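Hi R.,

Quick one: here's the Dynein light chain roadblock-type 2 sequence you asked about.
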Amino acid sequence: MDIFATIKRISSHESVDGVLILQDDGNVLHSSFEQDADTSRYAKLVLPLGMLACSSIRDVDPVNELQYARIGSMNKEINIVPQGKYFVVTVCSVTDQE
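And here's the predicted structure, written out as tokens:
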């Protein structure tokens, strides 16, 4: 399946605000956010958190690695999926129905 078709499918869900694909050096490879400010803000905030989560799992068990991190607040939910030197990030709005 084409990666861009998958990103488009994920982005089309009504609660998804945006999808990012980041490199571990902070480079944004793809963003579905409409505003560059949102892309920059989430990339700068989420990447260090994702890297810290990966490092923490390795510190606890060196043969294990982070598969998925889900962070929720009252208004947003951020999902981080590390894959090698890349991170796939989704930012979703939380509704009362969830």
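The CA atoms of residues 75 and 96 lie 10 Å apart.

Cheers,
M.
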